[in-house]
Design goal:
The protein is an all-alpha fold. It has helices at residues 2-13, 24-28, 37-64.
Length: 68
């Protein structure tokens, strides 16, 4: 869909197609849900930190157990 939108605009600029009647944002706006970016970012990075901590704990267990 993104390529179609991009190519339609490029072809229009080059005069190969008539101007598009709808733009990507108009087509998908009804399907988008607003988000609170600050809250989303906080939750995302919390999850990433937990993942990194889990990996580090696993590595420490391997080192302490002589598995390396």
């Amino acid at each position: 869909m993104i390529y179609k939108s991009y190519l339609s605009e490029k072809f229009t600029e080059d005069g190969l197609y008539p101007a598009p009647k709808h733009y990507l944002l108009d087509m998908v706006s009804n399907h988008l849900k607003p988000i609170e970016h600050d809250r989303w970012a906080k939750l995302y990075w919390k999850r990433e930190l937990e993942r990194v901590e889990r990996i580090q704990r696993h590595k420490w267990k391997l080192i302490e157990g002589g598995g390396v």
